[in-house]
Design goal:
Radius of gyration of chain A: 20 Å
Number of domains of chain A: 1
Oligomer: homodimer
Number of helices of chain A: 16
Distance between the termini of chain A: 7 Å
Largest sheet of chain A: 2 strands, antiparallel
CATH topology of chain A: Farnesyl Diphosphate Synthase
Structural class of chain A: mainly alpha
Largest interface: A-B, 42 and 42 residues
Chain lengths: 338, 338
């Protein structure tokens, strides 16, 4: 991007999630084993499709958050492993269904499953993973955790339908867009973080703190993704820059540019995003317009504000290596934009 | 059809489900209210899509079975209403996703939701209904019922993927086909019936009896559907005769015809079902071939065998008006074929 935004000292020193990865590493080995075994089926297409996506190098940030918050709260059982695997299955099912909805060709730098096995397989294998996710949650036996995750499943789908209804609608406001992000992305982060203290039978204010951390981190994460779609590099993101633009998605950089632009620019966004008439040079023009209005920097600045809120939420917990690791994770998510 | 198959006296006397409908009527009023309230959303597209399908005149046989088995087992709480609504939501979600998978134009005699709102809406509203279904199950608070329904969700999707893998494959055996039917159709009937005795805290053998009733009834129901697709009337079925044929589905009438046919007939099925080259006169030819081999009658005969097994399963219960109503329901499902 070439944009220089000052960062906090802490973020500049530790932008990795190495500390988090190390602390949850034993649990994640069991989560990965669980994921492999629960995608097994006599129906060969199921492990083929599921593992195409699952093994394609996602960071598994969401299941790590479940293990991390459980550990932060002193949980010593093994229910966190199955809930973490459930969270990853819910996420994978969402990705499979999103690809069908968005008619995406690529996902994480590989051909989308729907391009290899068809839309049908993406829909049905997604459904299978959701079913397996709920089976694992039931096995853990916490009705409170089940309630949080079932609620997230409904909210995520509701957010996706909302986004679909608002697609290609230039009247989308910043507030409206953030509500969609809170539903479609942050709800699963929030649930992933809340089941940790639930398993550990911690009091309500710690549940609320972990949930708040997850919500804010999820919003920050999505806003950075939105910024990267107009400025990251294809290699580092694993998907093509400009996907959102070509799919006519109204993300925050667009919302901010629209609010600050003139009639000529509005005509440009109308033609490209609403009418879908995209020419080769249009992505570069979109980036120029965003640069003119500081829309990418301000998207990142808003992400940083949510990141700060995520860190603030953890003040409910005493200092610990895991708390530091969770603070690092926030910095890592923000630092992807640079 | 014009096919005359002798039926048992009981079936001939009472082929309606009027008795069942009457006995569960107070509960179903509450189920319908629950369904309406749980499809509510600020996102207007959700109630639009959901109610398009939900209000389009399905018989709601599955939720009736949940209420009926709960009542059969003496349950007096109100958890059956939410579980029955969950079962209907799971079924509706499956229909929405099936339409996308099958590229269906029609559903229950109306335009399929995907034709009106697009594949995207069908996928996502299906996901929303699944999420709402699990939320209601959690509210009921029975982990055993949750386990049964979550397992059904995974098995249904697995069966659908299996069917997708086997689509257009003339090598499908009767046994293989019945295994798919047991997964994709009978699993939800079985779960709908098993949660009744679970809520009533009845012993394992009554759970097994209700489950067995549901499984057998579900298979019988699907086989009759398969027969109707080659012989029912569009008006009475609410979908076009020949849908399965045009979609290249290998159902039991085809499996039986294939096993009994010659090379010329095999070439016909290969061209129409495997290669999808269907001409206007082909459906009539398919029906002639099936008539020649008695494939429809034998499909119905097998359905009757499963129907008998369903009735037999209820011998675990003493006579009661509800038991009679559940026996009637079996006869009703079979009688649709005539």
């Amino acid at each position: 991007m070439g944009v220089v935004v000052p960062m906090e000292e802490r973020a500049r020193e530790q932008t990795g999630i190495d500390r988090l990865v190390a602390l949850v590493s034993p649990g994640m080995a069991r989560v990965n084993q669980m994921i492999l075994s629960r995608t097994g089926s006599d129906v060969a297409m199921i492990p083929e499709v599921a593992n195409h996506l699952i093994s394609s190098g996602g960071k598994r940030l969401r299941p790590m958050l479940t293990l991390a918050t459980a550990q932060l709260c002193g949980y010593e059982g093994d229910g966190d492993v199955k809930l973490a695997a459930s969270v990853e299955f819910m996420h994978t099912a969402t990705l499979l269904h999103d690809d069908v909805v968005d008619e995406s060709d690529m996902r994480r730098g590989k051909l989308a499953a729907r391009m290899l096995w068809g839309n049908e397989a993406s829909v049905l294998v997604g459904d299978f993973l959701l079913g397996q996710a709920f089976k694992m949650m039931v096995e853990v036996g916490s009705l409170d955790a089940l309630a949080v995750l079932a609620d997230a499943a409904a909210v995520i789908a509701e957010g996706e339908v909302w986004q679909l209804s608002a697609a290609k609608n230039l009247a989308t406001t910043e507030q409206g867009y953030l509500a969609v992000v809170e539903a479609k992305t942050a709800a699963l982060f929030a649930a992933a973080c809340e089941v940790g203290p639930i398993l550990a039978a911690r009091p309500a204010h710690e549940r609320a703190a972990c949930r708040s951390y997850g919500t804010s981190l999820g919003i920050a994460f999505q806003l950075i993704d939105d910024a990267l779609d107009y400025g990251g590099s294809s290699a580092s993101l694993g998907k093509n820059v400009g996907d959102d633009f070509r799919e006519g998605k109204i993300t925050l950089p667009v919302v901010l540019s629209l609010a600050r632009g003139d009639e000529a620019e509005r005509a440009f966004w109308h033609r490209t995003l609403e009418k879908g008439e995209v020419r080769d040079e249009d992505l570069a023009e979109a980036q120029r317009i965003m640069r003119r209005h500081g829309a990418i920097e301000d998207t990142i600045a808003r992400a940083r504000t949510y990141g700060d809120a995520a860190c603030e939420a953890l003040s409910a917990f005493p200092d610990s290596p895991m708390k530091t690791a969770l603070l690092d994770a926030v910095a890592f998510c923000i630092a992807r934009a640079y």
